[in-house]
Amino acid sequence: MKLNYDCIRDLLLFIEGKLQYGFYIDVDSIQIKNYSQQEILYSADKLYEAGYISADKRIAIGGKGIPQINIKSITWDGHQFLDNVRDNKVWENTKSILSNFSSVSIGIVNNVATQIISSVIETQLGLK
């Protein structure tokens, strides 16, 4: 399955807006417009693997089937990534730049967004 970076971003925004400290969100209960349940679950699983969310993940006996994921929080790294891609203009510019490549890692997405933000700040400070 292909990783959908729009879904990754929207899922992090959803988690940030809905999750209360000390509670959890069952990924099966998350519904985000324009994404299938499978896309949301896959995105949550990859965010967990990348260390961008803290979660309890259970896999069925025998290691087959769809995992059960309960999201507990966004990690420090997850918040840093989200803060880099939160702004719609930054996100659209990031996607535009990355559209020239057939695939990129989430680290590259984060780096490009960081460079765009840095460029905007330098321009506003008159350093460019």
TrEMBL record:
InterPro entries: DUF2513. It comes from the Bacteria. This is DUF2513 domain-containing protein.
